[in-house]
């Protein structure tokens, strides 16, 4: 969801009354529960229906397999009957003759024997005998018979007994002047008396007879049962246009080859249930396919009715919610009006609500709150006074008395050396320093005045320490017109000298610079002193919150920096303050960030 749209929806929701919020919440929650219940119910019941469909279809496929087994088992039995028939054995065993009448009598006798076997067996479409002399005998009503015995004589060569089933194929004969698709049994047969090879028997079954065994099995309005071989060719189907077509590239075929049972596949934009069962005699796979929507269509009707009833429940719940919300919001509206009176300054109001529930408890606490408001206001005034006292104490703590003592001692030392000019200079600088510090009692001064105080402080120290200390000031002229807190830079400079440069060998340097960046005033104090160790640097702003520090020099240094940071945040806000960067042995840089507040209009 886009952020803007989400914000608008949240704003709209927050602007609603409690009554409307409760109504919407109940509607949403109840509707969501009904939808989830319907979804889960549909999924569970659909799963049950699909499992039941798998079980029923598997039973139907088992029935088809049993019917096929009966047909093909009987076909092999009748084939054995034919090849052991005495007439057939005798005629095929006799040597060939050129006498037409004798040949006709043999053919007629053979045909009668074959017809007697076929006539009572409706599943047998044709019975054909091929002898070793390339003569063909059939069960009658057959024409244009192609002699295909050579292929099978070669196939059975070297074996005493041979029997094979040929998958669905176009018949090698015409029956009633029509060709047909048949499944054929080919069986080699021998003389019952001598055991020598006599010929080949072909028993063919019309594929339509096989398809009729499952044509009337109902597995759905558009469901279908069909048979394929191991190569994926359709060997039998009630839809004859699909015969000999291949399903080897269909998504379910690899699974059907190696599994029995049911599984759901996505085909042609819809989910279908595929149930398979193997038929070993002809290496066939019997497959049943039915669309899932047909299995679950009754369940969908039930779900739609469920949603209709759920909608009625939602309407009833909304009406009930409105009544409940009204009983809750009436006392809340009364509380709202009373709060508005208090907001207007009337502290004598009282809530009179009789209920003892959460709203009654709220009214009781509200009355206590109004009674204590005056006391709380007085406490706030006291807290503000304490804050100002803290500020004054912090500011005064920054004026290090040792600085004054040391300066006076320096004046005495200069007097002993009769350096009157330096005495006059240091006294003037000291007077200028304290004149700037006092600044008519105002805690806020211009940046320019703060620079003067800091520069005066540095000049006094230069007289005291001579060439050991040097400094540079680098300020953008724009910064002079802004205001800051008095004695903001002096504590930082003092830290730099006494804790950074004092312990350094050779001359030390302090670089102070200031500039305006956007709406912020940035001032930095950088020294090339000994720096601060990382473990001490991490603890500077926690000084005073723990008693774990034992290094008093480090505490004194940290307190100066921490108190300055707190004063900045107190006056200008938490987004301003100090940032310290230090590398031990190389130096320290303290950066101050202040708002750009101009001094114009200040008294």
Provide a descriptive summary of the structure in words.
The protein is α+β, with helices and mostly antiparallel strands and 603 residues long. The chain has 3 domains: 47-296, Beta-Lactamase, CATH 3.30.450; 350-390, no CATH class; 399-595, Heat Shock Protein 90 (2-Layer Sandwich), CATH 3.30.565. The protein is built from 15 helices and 19 strands. The protein has helices at residues 3-15, 18-83, 86-93, 100-119, 149-156, 207-215, 253-258, 292-343, 358-398, 401-416, 420-438, 447-465, 490-501, 534-537, 552-572, and strands at residues 126-131, 136-138, 142-143, 162-170, 174-175, 181-190, 197-206, 224-229, 234-237, 261-267, 270-279, 284-291, 444-446, 469-475, 483-485, 508-517, 520-527, 577-583, 587-595. The strands form 5 sheets. It has a 5-stranded antiparallel beta sheet, with helices on both faces. Strands 9-8-12-11-10 form a 5-stranded antiparallel beta sheet. α10 (401-416) packs antiparallel against α11 and α13 packs antiparallel against α15 (552-572). The two termini are 54 Å apart.
Tell me the major beta sheet: 5 strands, antiparallel
How many strands in all?
19
**Tally of helical runs:** 15
Spell out the CATH superfamily of the largest domain.
PAS domain
Structural class comes to: alpha+beta
Strand content: 15-25%
Helix percentage range: 40-55%
Terminal-residue CA separation: 54 Å
* Multimeric status of the protein: single chain
Overall spatial form: elongated
CATH architecture of the largest domain: 2-Layer Sandwich
């Amino acid at each position: 969801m886009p952020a803007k749209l989400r914000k608008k929806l949240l704003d709209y929701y927050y602007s609603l009354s409690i009554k409307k919020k409760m109504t919407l919440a109940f509607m949403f929650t109840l509707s969501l529960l009904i939808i989830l219940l319907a979804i889960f119910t549909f999924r569970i019941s659909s799963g049950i229906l699909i499992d039941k469909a798998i079980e029923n279809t598997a039973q139907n496929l088992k029935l088809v397999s049993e019917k096929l087994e009966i047909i093909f088992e009987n076909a092999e039995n009748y084939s054995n009957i034919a090849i052991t028939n005495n007439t057939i054995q005798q005629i095929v065993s006799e040597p060939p003759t050129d006498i037409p009448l004798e040949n006709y009598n043999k053919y007629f006798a053979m045909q009668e024997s074959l017809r007697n076997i076929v006539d009572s067996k409706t599943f047998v479409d044709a019975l054909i005998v091929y002898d070793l002399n390339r003569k063909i005998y059939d069960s009658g009503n057959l024409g244009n018979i192609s002699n295909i015995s050579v292929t099978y004589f070669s196939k059975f060569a070297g074996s005493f007994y041979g029997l094979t089933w040929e998958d669905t194929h176009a018949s090698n004969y015409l029956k009633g002047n029509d060709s047909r698709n048949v499944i054929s049994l080919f069986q080699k047969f021998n003389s019952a008396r001598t055991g020598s090879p006599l010929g080949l028997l072909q028993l063919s079954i019309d594929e339509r007879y096989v398809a009729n065994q499952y044509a009337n099995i109902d597995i759905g309005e558009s469901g279908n049962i069909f048979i394929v071989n191991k190569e994926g060719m359709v060997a039998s189907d009630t839809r004859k246009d699909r015969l000999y077509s291949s399903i080897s590239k269909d998504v379910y075929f690899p699974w059907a080859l190696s599994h029995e049972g049911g599984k759901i596949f996505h085909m042609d934009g819809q989910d279908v249930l595929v149930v398979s069962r193997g038929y070993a005699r002809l290496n066939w796979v019997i497959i049943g396919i039915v669309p899932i929507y047909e299995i679950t269509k009754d369940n969908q009707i039930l779900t739609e009715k469920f949603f209709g009833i759920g909608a009625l429940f939602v309407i009833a719940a909304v009406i009930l919610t409105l009544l409940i919300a009204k009983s809750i919001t009436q006392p809340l509206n009364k509380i709202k009006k009373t709060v508005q009176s208090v907001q207007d300054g009337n502290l004598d109001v009282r809530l009179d609500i009789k209920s003892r529930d959460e709203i009654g408890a709220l009214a009781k606490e509200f009355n206590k709150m109004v009674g204590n408001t005056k006391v709380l206001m007085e406490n706030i005034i006291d807290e503000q006074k304490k804050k100002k006292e803290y500020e004054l104490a912090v500011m005064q703590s920054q004026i290090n008395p040792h600085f004054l003592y040391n300066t006076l001692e320096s004046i005495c030392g200069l007097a002993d050396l009769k350096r009157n000019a330096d005495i006059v200079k240091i006294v003037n600088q000291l007077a200028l320093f304290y004149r700037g510090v006092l600044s008519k009692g105002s805690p806020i001064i211009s940046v320019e005045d703060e620079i003067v105080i800091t520069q005066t402080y540095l000049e006094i120290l230069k007289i005291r320490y001579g060439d050991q200390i040097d400094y540079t000031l680098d300020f953008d002229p724009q910064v002079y017109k802004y205001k800051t807190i008095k004695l903001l830079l002096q504590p930082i400079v003092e830290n730099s000298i006494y804790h950074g440069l004092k312990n350094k060998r050779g001359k030390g340097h302090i670089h102070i610079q200031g500039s305006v960046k956007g709406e912020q005033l940035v001032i930095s104090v950088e020294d090339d002193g000994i720096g601060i160790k990382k473990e001490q640097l991490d603890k500077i702003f926690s000084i005073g919150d723990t008693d774990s520090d034992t290094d008093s020099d480090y505490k004194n240094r940290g307190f100066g920096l921490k108190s300055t940071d707190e004063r900045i945040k107190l006056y200008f806000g938490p987004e301003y303050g100090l940032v310290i960067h230090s590398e031990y042995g190389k130096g320290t840089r303290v950066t101050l960030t202040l708002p750009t507040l101009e001094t114009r209009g200040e008294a």
